[in-house]
């Protein structure tokens, strides 16, 4: 028996994304291309009957979701920072290029994509995964109990963890994921 679907997507491109900046919990806004990404997502999701929609407090996520929900005015919006982007701590606001110039590509890769590596005053992807898995379990329960469709807009790293959860990926598979700005992933809940 199918109970409903979860639609997971990333926020549109931001100025930090465009400029190669460690964004994390910074409140970087959508570029014109990011606004177009959101409109594309809205068109792709317009016939999905979304009842609940989850976002973090960050503007980039809320603006992307607002565009999607133009076609779903009945949707209940829930702010839940468990889907917020990974906190890059002291690296937030610094460009990738400058970090690489100062510390090298190996150090950059360690902090940027290392599963268990915690940037100073930040969080590892493993830590993101822990909070996202708890969120995903609650969303699954909601869909089963309410027999509804749910949309979730997230940051790139929280989306990696959500995809790992729903697609039953290994850590290595998750770490290779690149999430496009204008695509969504659909997960059927129930069986």
Give a written overview of the molecule:
The chain is an alpha/beta fold and 191 residues long. The chain has one domain (2-190): Rossmann fold (3-Layer(aba) Sandwich). It has eight helices and five strands; from the N terminus they run βααβαβαααβααβ. The chain has a five-stranded mixed β-sheet, with helices on both faces. α2 (32-45) crosses α3, α4 crosses α5 (105-113) and α6 (125-146) crosses α7 (156-167). The N and C termini lie close together (5 Å). The mean pLDDT is 96.
Secondary structure: elements and pairs:
Elements: E1 2-10, H1 15-18, H2 32-45, E2 50-55, H3 59-68, E3 76-79, H4 96-103, H5 105-113, H6 125-146, E4 149-154, H7 156-167, H8 171-175, E5 184-190
Parallel strand pairs: 1-4, 2-3, 2-4
Antiparallel strand pairs: 1-5
Helix pairs in contact: 2-3, 4-5, 6-7
- Summed up, the helix count is 8
Strand order of the largest sheet: 3-2-4-1-5
Kindly state the percentage of residues in helix.
Answer: 40-55%
Name the CATH superfamily assignment: Phosphoglycerate mutase-like
At the first level of CATH, the class is Alpha Beta
Largest sheet: 5 strands, mixed
> Termini distance?
5 Å
- Global shape: globular
The mean pLDDT is: 96
What order do the helices and strands follow? EHHEHEHHHEHHE
Please name the CATH topology.
Answer: Rossmann fold
Unreliably modeled segments: none
Structural class: alpha/beta
Describe the structure concisely.
With 191 residues, the chain is of the alpha/beta class.
């Amino acid at each position: 028996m199918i109970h409903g679907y979860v639609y997971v997507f990333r926020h549109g491109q931001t100025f930090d994304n465009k400029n190669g900046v460690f964004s994390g919990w910074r409140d970087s806004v959508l570029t014109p291309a990011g606004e177009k990404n959101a409109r594309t997502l809205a068109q792709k999701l317009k016939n999905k009957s979304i009842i609940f929609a989850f976002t973090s407090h960050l503007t980039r996520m809320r603006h992307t979701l607002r565009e999607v929900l133009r076609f779903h005015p009945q949707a209940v919006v829930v702010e839940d920072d468990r889907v917020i982007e990974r906190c890059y701590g002291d690296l937030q606001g610094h460009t990738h290029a400058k970090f690489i110039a100062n510390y090298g590509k190996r150090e950059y890769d360690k902090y940027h994509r290392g599963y268990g590596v915690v940037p100073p005053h930040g969080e590892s992807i493993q830590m993101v995964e822990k909070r996202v898995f708890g969120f995903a379990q609650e969303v699954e329960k909601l869909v089963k109990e309410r027999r509804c469709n749910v949309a979730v807009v997230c940051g790139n790293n929280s989306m990696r963890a959500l995809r790992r959860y729903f697609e039953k990926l290994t850590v290595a598979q998750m770490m290779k994921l690149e999430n496009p700005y204008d695509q969504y992933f659909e997960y059927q809940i129930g069986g």
